Amino acid sequence: MNFSESKYVKEMCEITANMYRQGWDERNGGNISYLLDRDQVREFFPIEKQIRKIELGFVADEIVRNKFFLVTGTGKYFKNVEKDPENNLGLVKISKDGKEAGLIWGFKDGGKFTSEFPAHLMSHAARLKVNPKNRVIMHTHPLYTICMGACLPVDEKEFTRALWKSNTEAVVVFPEGIGVLPCMVCGTTEIGQATAEKMKKHRLVSWTNHGIYGAGEDIDEAFGLIETVEKTAQIYMLTIDHVENVIPDNVIIGLAKLWNLKMMPGVIKEK
To answer: Does pTM surpass 0.85?
Structure first.
């Protein structure tokens, strides 16, 4: 089977098309990286295969070295991935010294991975140390999540509380809360490091005035986390200044106890 027809590429095609239809990824906005196991790659390519080398621009953590990532390309539009995956996606292997990536497949026009790939690798490293099963880092620009970040202080407890109080699904889906960063220059080592630091405790990190990062064991989990935040942010923004009913603290606590969830501390206080 050609790698272009593999389930991994098909998953990337389906999710990028879906995210574009959601209106989350305008123009070339958004990026995804998908960690593949050695055996999954070996089904299609010799492990030593390398078309060319691409500098990372930083030194990757040891935990992601010698690992394989299917990643979206820089300047590429999500709407085009499905019809031309080999041009818009690339499969790379991180070098032993963590300084470069060897291209195995894709980026056929001479392109390279997203400019935020260093931030992805930093977040992969952070999540793998917490959960060795983590496979996906997803970045996107959901409308209501960005609006909500513009309307609230840069405070992750306040941001999380506003979400938990707006939709009963919120605390169940992300009981550890959401990390929040101030507005920063994207595509830099600094924002990558800041995001990875938040990823030590959270699977979701909001970039104020920009978008959100989500992490998961598979594409469904990462997308589902962001999808739930965006739906809840929409509820919050549509009802702001008109709210008659918010979810009581005791109901949020009850949901956490029902599902045996470990809640982010300091957001809801038990009376």
So the answer is: yes
